[in-house]
Design brief:
- The structure is a single chain.
- This protein has helices at 2-27, 36-43, 270-286, 288-295, and strands spanning 46-47, 51-57, 64-69, 75-79, 84-88, 94-99, 111-116, 121-126, 131-136, 143-149, 156-162, 168-173, 181-190, 196-211, 214-218, 224-229, 232-237, 243-245, 252-254, 303-309, 312-317, 325-331, 337-342, 346-351, 355-360, 367-372.
- With 373 residues, the protein is α+β, with helices and mostly antiparallel strands.
- The chain has one domain.
- Strands 1-23-22-21-20 form a 5-stranded mixed beta sheet, with no helix packed on it. A 5-stranded antiparallel beta sheet has the order 11-12-13-14-15, with no helix packed on it. A 4-stranded antiparallel beta sheet has the order 2-26-25-24, with no helix packed on it.
- A hairpin with a 2-residue loop joins strand 16 (224-229) and strand 17.
- Helix 1 packs antiparallel against helix 3 (270-286) and helix 3 (270-286) packs antiparallel against helix 4 (288-295).
- The longest helix has 26 residues, at 2-27.
- It is globular and about 55 Å long.
């Protein structure tokens, strides 16, 4: 009986992780069914001519957690599991490796956030060791700059970003509830020692669902997306193209009337809805409470990532298995919208000098791809 429950639980979690790809793949079987409104919107805007190039396909790399480009165009790869920091040249050739698994200076047990500042300093948060590690990538060999233990927060620090004045802004998750429901993120200003100095605002973080007494983050519904741009922190929901500056006032970087809002709601796409039942029928039969929760969803997650470079926002839209994905470019000044095709299951990581960097997951998470436009 216990073994059967474990198998069911594993199937359920696997379904949660793979569902976005299943649904999108199903909706791509007949491209005309991928939301007629969305297709009409795409056909109404210009496609940017681009060329794709595989930078690195390293079988020795494990899961790529983060990817950054330095001011000189070199590539930094933060590798999961081993927690190595790889420095590569523009062609993907190895230059140096730092970091690694451990508890010593410059080592990590669990990296859950990393951010490369304009001075090519990589700020790394280890949530298990509760400390921040800084590496400089100015030279051929990464230089360990500092290791700082974090204060004993009442909430979990999820992300932090360095301000030009030497202080930081941090995104915290409130303690998860004992029952299913929403959880929230609270933003604080932090001093140079990461001590909380001022509460800024509180935002929706995501949904929780209950599975036999355990809490699991539901990645199917809208979730918070954070963006740090020009020394300011911005917040968005993955089901909305409104990007709001984190402050005490309403201040939007991307306005409500953006043409991106023409992308249809998840519930309104009959073809996707039909395929949900086909692929999740077994799960629904085992977990009827999940079916009830799932049917309450209002929208399909529009994008998985948003980045800004030189006054243009890049939205990573959909990631189908069997056909190209889409990145929408939105000019912040003119509201002009264009799109770039990507490889299937493309995971946007960085935009630098008219080049998009990401991971093509169809052939394995270790294939680093660039798209020049």
């Amino acid at each position: 009986m216990v073994d059967k429950m474990i198998v069911c639980l594993m199937k359920y979690i696997l379904c949660i992780l793979l569902f976005p790809y299943l649904v999108i793949s199903c909706s791509q079987e007949k491209s005309t069914h991928l939301g007629n409104e969305f297709l009409a919107f795409i056909h109404s805007i210009e496609e940017v001519k681009s060329s794709q190039n595989i930078i690195a396909k390293d079988s020795n790399l494990q899961v790529v957690m983060h990817l950054f480009t330095t001011s000189s165009g070199r590539i930094i790869v933060v590798e999961g599991q081993s927690w190595n920091l790889h420095l590569k040249d523009k062609e993907g050739n190895a230059i140096a490796v730092a970091g690694g698994y451990g508890r010593g200076p410059g080592e990590f047990e669990l990296i859950n956030h990393a951010y490369l500042s304009d001075d090519d300093v990589l700020h790394i948060l280890d949530s298990r060791l509760m400390r921040v590690t800084k590496y400089s990538f100015h030279k051929d060999q990464p230089e360990l700059m500092s290791v700082t233990n974090l204060p004993n927060y009442e909430m979990r620090l999820e992300k932090f970003f360095p301000l030009t004045d030497g202080n930081y802004v941090g995104v915290f998750s409130e303690n998860l509830p004992r029952t299913a429901g929403s959880f929230y993120n609270t933003v604080y200003h932090l001093d140079e020692n990461y001590e909380q100095t001022k509460k800024v605002n509180r935002f929706f973080g995501g949904e929780m669902i209950s599975l036999r007494g355990s809490l699991i983050v539901d990645e199917l519904s809208a979730r918070s997306v954070w963006l740090f741009y020009k020394d300011k922190l911005f917040y968005s929901r993955s089901d909305s193209f409104q990007v709001r500056m984190v402050s005490s006032e309403e201040d939007y970087l991307i306005q409500v009337d953006s043409p991106l809002n023409e992308i249809p709601a998840f519930r309104n796409d009959e073809y996707i809805q039909n395929n949900i039942g086909i692929h999740l029928e077994n799960i629904f039969s085992m977990l009827p409470e999940f079916k009830v929760h799932f049917e309450e969803l209002e929208t399909f997650t529009y994008f998985t990532q948003v980045l800004i470079e030189n006054g243009t926002a890049y939205f990573n839209i959909f990631n189908p298995v069997g056909s190209p994905g889409i990145i929408l470019k939105y000019n912040l000044e003119t509201s002009e919208t264009t799109f770039i095709r990507t490889p299937p299951m493309f995971d946007l990581k960085q935009v630098f000098d008219n080049e998009i960097f990401g991971i093509d997951q169809t052939k394995g998470v270790n294939e680093i791809v660039s798209i020049r436009f």
